[in-house]
Design brief:
- This is Flavin prenyltransferase UbiX.
- It catalyses: dimethylallyl phosphate + FMNH2 = prenylated FMNH2 + phosphate.
- Pfam families: Flavoprotein.
- With 198 residues, this protein is of the alpha/beta class.
- Helix content is 40%, strand content 17%.
- It has a single domain, classed as Rossmann fold.
- Helix 1 packs across helix 3, helix 1 packs across helix 7 and helix 4 crosses helix 6.
- The radius of gyration is 16 Å and the shape is globular.
- The N and C termini lie far apart (32 Å).
- Bound molecules: flavin mononucleotide.
- Flavin mononucleotide (FMN) binds next to helix 2 and helix 4.
């Protein structure tokens, strides 16, 4: 399993953090890139000082004492000449978690000014799975139209809307619900939340 993971600047750093924590336990490798807004919001929401995607990985490793089975390769958000800017490199799927309305707007219009946007655009053109986890509320009609355009282009929209029927006890449980649903779409076995048994 080789993934591209993009962290964009929406609220909901917990979804990124819990997804990365769970991914650490999966054999494989991923490319990781984070926008400046994502890094800033991560700092604010976790009341910590992170300045880079590397810092976010270190934070996750330390906070949850993960034993890394997964290898992350950090890529510079501004390096549109990076390896993951080209479809000549192969990856199985890309996840943008969380995803801002700004990045949704760029992706739905084919704008590729940074590495998240470029790698996501490559994922769509190469017909690779692209999972977008948008976070905004309420949505205006521009957001809705852009999300629909992305769905029509082949992306999967997985809103940051955790369910409550699994009786979450902690905020991490809510993060794990979304991480688990991303895993389901990636075809990775997961035990991140209790399954509904009927
Ligand atoms: C604390 C904070 C929270 C934000 N939350 C959201 C959000 O939930 N959804 C959203 O679309 N934008 C949100 N924004 C605005 C985006 O970060 C901003 O539009 C930024 O340009 C997104 O760029 P990026 O997608 O390249 O990271 C937030 C900004 C800040 C500072």
């Amino acid at each position: 399993m080789k993934l591209v993971v993009g962290l964009a600047g929406a609220s909901g750093s917990i979804y990124a953090a819990r997804f990365l924590r769970a991914l650490y336990e999966v054999e494989g490798e991923s490319y990781l890139t984070a926008s400046p807004a994502a890094i800033r919001i991560f700092s604010e929401e976790y009341e910590t000082k992170v300045e880079s995607a590397e810092d976010i990985l270190s934070f996750v490793e330390t906070k949850w004492k993960v034993k890394p089975k997964h290898k992350f390769h950090v890529r510079n958000f501004f390096d549109i000449g990076s390896d993951i800017a080209s479809g000549s490199n192969r990856w199985d799927a890309m996840v943008v978690v969380p995803c801002s309305m700004k990045t949704v707007a760029s992706l739905s219009h084919g704008l590729t000014e940074n590495l998240i946007e470029r790698a996501a655009d490559v994922s769509l053109k190469e017909r690779r799975r692209l999972i977008i986890v948008p976070r905004e509320t309420p949505y205006n009609r521009i957001h809705l139209k852009n999300l629909l355009a992305l769905d029509e282009a082949g992306a999967i929209i997985l809103p940051a809307s955790p369910g409550f029927y699994q009786m979450p006890k902690t905020l991490d449980d809510l993060g794990d619900f979304i991480a688990g649903r991303i895993f389901n779409l990636l075809g990775i076995e997961q035990n991140l939340y209790p399954k509904w048994l009927g």
